[in-house]
Amino acid sequence: MKATPQKEQTRARPARSRGSISRWLGLGIGLLVIILFFSVASEDWFTIVNYTLIAAIAALGLNVLSGYTGQVSLGISFFMAIGAYTAALLGGPQPTGPLDPQGFALPFFVWLPAAGIVAALVGALVGPTTLRLKGFYLGIVTLALVFIGQYIFMNLRPVTGGPQGRTFPVPAIGAASIDQQNSFFGFALTSGQQYFLLVLLVLVLSSLFVSNVMRSRAGRAFRAVRDHEVGASIMGVNIFRAKMKAFILSSFLAGVSGALFASLIRYVTPNYWDLTLAIQFVAAIIVGGIASVWGSILGAAFVFGLPQVIDYFSLLPSSTNSGGLNSGNLNALIYGALIIVFLLFEPSGVLGLVQRGQRLIHKMRNQQREGGEVAEITDLSDAEAQFHLESAAHAKDENG
Amino acid sequence: MAYFIQLVFAGIAQGCIYALIGLGFSIIFKASEVINFAQGELLLVGAYIVSSGVFEWHLPFLAALLLGLVVTVLIGLLFERFVLRRMIGRPVFSILMITIGLDIILRTIVIIRWGSNPIPAASPFDVTSGINAGGIHFGANDIWTIAITVVICAALFYFFRYTRYGLAMRATALDQEAALAVGINIRTVYALAWGIAAAIATLGGVFLAIDSFAIDPTFGATALLAFPAIILGGIDSVSGAVVGGIIIGVVQVVTAGYESHVASVLGAGIHQITPYLIMILVLLIRPYGLFGTRKVERI
Amino acid sequence: MEFLHHSPGKSLGIGSRVRQAPMKFLFTCSLALVALVMVLSGCASNSGPTTNSGSLKAGPGVDVNNKTITLGILSPYSGPVADPIGIPLANGVKALFDHVNDNGGINGFKVKFLEEDTQYNPQLEVQKYNQIRNQVLMIADSLGTPTTFAIKDQAASDHMLVSAATLSSALAREKYLILVGTPYRLQVENAFDYVVNKLGVKNPATGIIYQNDEYGQDGLTGYKEAVSVYGLHDVAQVSYAATDTDFTAQVSQLKASGAKYVFMTAIPTAAAGIIGTAYKLGYNPQWIMQSPAFARGLLAVPALVPLLSKVWVVSQGAAWGDTSVPGMAQMLQDVQKYFPNQKPDGYFEFGYTESLITLAILKKAMANNDLTRDGLFTAFESLKTVDLMGLLPPITYGSSPNERVPTRDSVIYQIDPTAPADVKPITPDFTGTAAKQSQF
User: Fold this and answer.
1) Which of B46, B257, C29, C141 gives 20 to 30 Å between its CA and that of C370?
2) Are C366 and C109 a contacting pair, CB within 8 Å?
């Protein structure tokens, strides 16, 4: 269905202004919700939400690499660990005894970006060898990174504290460290609230940055690499450079996320950065929605936030004997089942579900107006077809 | 010297177990391009059922082994039929993820049913049975592991070369469309692939359990080391899986045997990552593994 | 036949950007719903009556009107550590207070528990701690070193006492963490004190095999201290990884070194593999197990039973079933009454003893009329010679790291399938020279 250029002109303007009203409305409601949550939620909810938001940053990073650029990666926990230990080394307290790990006690606006930068540098180092491989091979090599990383972290006692682990620095503004209650401009903020503000800021900045990148030429190059590598190189895309850029950006985000994770939990042993964690992130972007900023956030909410919410409401009691269906085992079952169900029935993840809902609503609205069925293209995974469908629907809206 | 040979022998036995697990991966991958992350948990379920068979339900060992094989093959077939069949055409990432989902569910079911305390491993051998020569003990379990692996490899070789279904599987692995076009029943091929892989996984699991004396739900993690084995050997090669497995096994055990000498420099636990280091090294030189076939890309 | 060729990009279902705006609306609606739920529960959970009644000062978790004291338990109830350790230990913690509650409570106050499943995961422990910290007076059981360490700073700033169910020496440096029992490190030292001083073996060839994590590190530290204090002939220090299933390499090393006494800082599954493999290879040293290395399940492995009877286990506490010990008699009655399905289990006994210490703290604080967090802390630091009814020797705490190590003694047991808890003591309770002088 092609419209004449003039018609497209007249169509475009009203559509955009209408879109922008509901867009501003959505933004406003979102802001209101956030402020509401901020003021009344209890500390334990803040822990859950902060944890989820930090996970969203790493999920975003993984999406950049795997979702947008199609490079299978099971190694995100490695880069998170690099970021965390950089933060610890730079920001941790000075050692008081021979057994204490190193720390330079630098302020957080040094160690937080440094965490990302060092992780990105490691990504740049590792990238050339890893990114030569494709598919399964790449996946297993990134898996190898996790194990090699664990070995290094276990043995690098001065930095990581060895198997015993170490404490991680807490961001502090001057003398006020955000794990205490502090007063800003007359408002008393709890630790959870302060962390929330910091993490939300980082997440929003990262999301804006990533979606900007994806709209730019580099982003299109990423997608081209994912969709058809040979075709992309024929078109002039420098495959290697595109993959490296994605890898570096992804590692940066993972590093920042790792530093924030470790700071929130305060004490981490090297065991923490394991394959299970990396797989959780892969599950997150699949469940949430591949190649999408909102998908990363939704996915993190599902995989990291939901189990804790289930636990919080104590749907099942703790058990007093072995095995059995207690809440921990149930959570694991739900987690595995969710993965399978989403992959089977909704490969676009939660985002895809939402979009289906929208399409349904839109279809019903059209039916009311026209009294007839819109010719539906059933292959919903084809972006081109979607676009045509929607512009056709738009046309009907305008004219009908 | 005897020390070294003991290590090598143990490494070969361990490597044969990796080879068995890796073969399972390989067969599934060759037939349907699916990477089955759940192979480790099939191994776990198999070992647990055999152990329960012997200690809980008081079956003779072979009967328990048969039971274990039947159950895991059934799981493999059901999963393939009802879950993977719908995933045809989806990207590699998604399929890998769905097997990870199965992996999680299987392990949780084991924990729900058996708890997480260690349970004894069922073994038909007496602990000390075997051959002792020159200060080296060649354990019965290890000898049997190596022997059975060789037999299975020979059987698979024969199967792929000389039987109809073997040929059908090779054809499907090469080109699914063409295989369909000549009338090969893809469903049977897939089912066969998963069935064989599950059975081999159970066998590997039983041997591994005998070696460990006691098993707990984290037992399946060993299967991860089969990945470097098959990548090293070449993911679509039967002989590659065996060679790769043995190399990985020997390197791992020998490293473990000498690592405390270099502990001050290299720290502890390097034997866990030497398989991966070797894999990366080989991939740098031969990206398709030692015996893998080079992929020809059609533009 | 298009579907047979999968190209990575096409079927990923890229979201159409045209639909951003209403989608955001839908999203914010669901966000609003979620926030509403959180707000409601947030309002609900911020309860923590801190009322003062008469002269009794009450802190969070103390309900003076209903006369209850709420304590927290942060333990794995699911996951690999739950069955062997987490659940029996928590049961022990609760059993004592079931008994206390049925016998008048503490000055009429009954003790209740808020139990949270941590799955042995530090992040979950932090989150659960945050969930319950305004509702409990102290944490009566926090299981695991990495998990307890994750909350130690928060607990310190909350002035919250945490009874740590782990024997890692590093705990001694923390003011608000209560160590219950002899640390692993000293267990190793006591074991070799037995070999050298009690058995009279001079300069024995010794070795250690330890798990490659923080638990193993503590054992290794103790071993090294023992080597220097007792003049041991150290021939092998071998580590294994928690995921190892084959122990040929490690055992071959020990065998080649000729170690006669080998300490095992391991977990049961690995211990089975190590002992079995050693036997297979014809190597039979005197194995000495750290307390967590032994589990009843090992005796179900037929190949191991004849071997295990020669193995020693270093632990502590009265033997299960020894009714000559008053604490044991009482505990057995409580098991029958409150946890009849509980099999003899050292972790249950550990939890029970842990609660005895908690009880002592609460009683003292009650006697001082101060049931606030600070009141409990003062009581804790001033505990002297608390009678634990023979389950452990009387303990004294204090304010320096050395004083925070409550006991330095151990008992060496031999594995005995005929004994109630599968172990029978072969030494009395004793403290070796190295353990006495070890600095924390």
Assistant:
1) C141
2) yes
Residues of chain C short of pLDDT 70, as ranges, are 1-54
Structure tokens at C71: 């304590």
Question: Shortest CA distance to C331 belongs to which of C93, C84, C106, C95?
Answer: C95
* Residue A22, pLDDT above cutoff 80: no
Q: Give per-residue pLDDT as tens, C42-52.
A: 444 444 444 44
Chain A closest CA to B111's CA: distance in Å? 6
* pLDDT tens-digit map of A187-201: 777 778 888 989 999
Give the closest of B88, B91, B130 to C8, CB-based. B91
For A314-352, write each residue's pLDDT tens digit: 655 555 454 566 667 777 888 888 888 888 887 777 777
Q: Left (φ > 0), alpha (ψ -120 to 50) or beta: where does B98 sit? A: alpha
CB contact under 8 A, B260 and C238: yes
Residues in chain A within 8 Å Cβ distance of C126: 47, 264-266
> What is the DSSP annotation of B25-54?
HHHHHHHH----TTHHHHHHHHHHHHHHHH
C7 vs A228: CA distance, rounded Å: 8
CA–CA distance, C30 with A9 (Å, rounded to integer) = 34
Better-scored residue on pLDDT, A312 or A267: A267
- Beta-carbon count within 10 A of B131 CB: 10
Asked if the C-beta of B117 comes within 8 angstroms of chain A's C-beta atoms, the answer is yes
Q: Is A319 on the interface with B (CB under 8 A)?
A: no
Q: How far apart are CA C306 and CA C276, in angstroms?
A: 11
Q: Averaged over A78-89, what is the pLDDT?
A: 94
Q: Are C414 and C309 in contact (CB under 8 A)?
A: yes
Distance in angstroms (rounded) separating the CA atoms of residues C61 and B100: 43
| Count of residues making up chain A | 400
pLDDT exceeds cutoff 80 at B283? yes
Out of B91, B180, B214, the one facing C11 most closely (by C-beta) is B91
pLDDT surpassing 80 at residue A369: no
In chain B, the residue whose alpha carbon lies closest to the alpha carbon of C307 is B127
CA distance C97 to A21: 62
Q: Which residue of C has its CA nearest to A306?
A: C34
Q: pLDDT tier at B16 (50, 70, 90 boundaries)?
A: very high
DSSP state string for A267-323: EE-GGGSSHHHHHHHHHHHHHH-TT-HHHHHHHHIIIIIHHHHHHHTTSSPPPSSSS
Of all residues in chain A, the percent with pLDDT exceeding 90 is 32
Which of A169, A150, A165, A149 minimizes the C-alpha distance to A101?
Answer: A165
How would you classify the pairing of strands B214-215 and C57-58?
Answer: unpaired
Inter-chain touch C24–A30, beta carbons under 8 Å: yes
Neighbours of A26 (CB within 10 A): 21
Q: What is the pLDDT of residue A249?
A: 96
Contact C75, C84 (CB under 8 A): no
What is the nearest CA distance from A390 to chain C, expressed in angstroms?
A: 8
**Predicted pLDDT of residue C332:** 92
Q: Each residue of A346-363: pLDDT tens digit? A: 777 777 787 888 888 888
Looking only at the bridges linking them, the beta strands covering C162-165 and C205-211 are unpaired
Of A164, A269, A355, the CB nearest to C15: A355
Q: Are B47 and B205 in contact (CB under 8 A)?
A: yes
Three-state SS string over C242-274 comes to CCCCCCHHHHHHHHHHCCCEEEEECCHHHHHHH
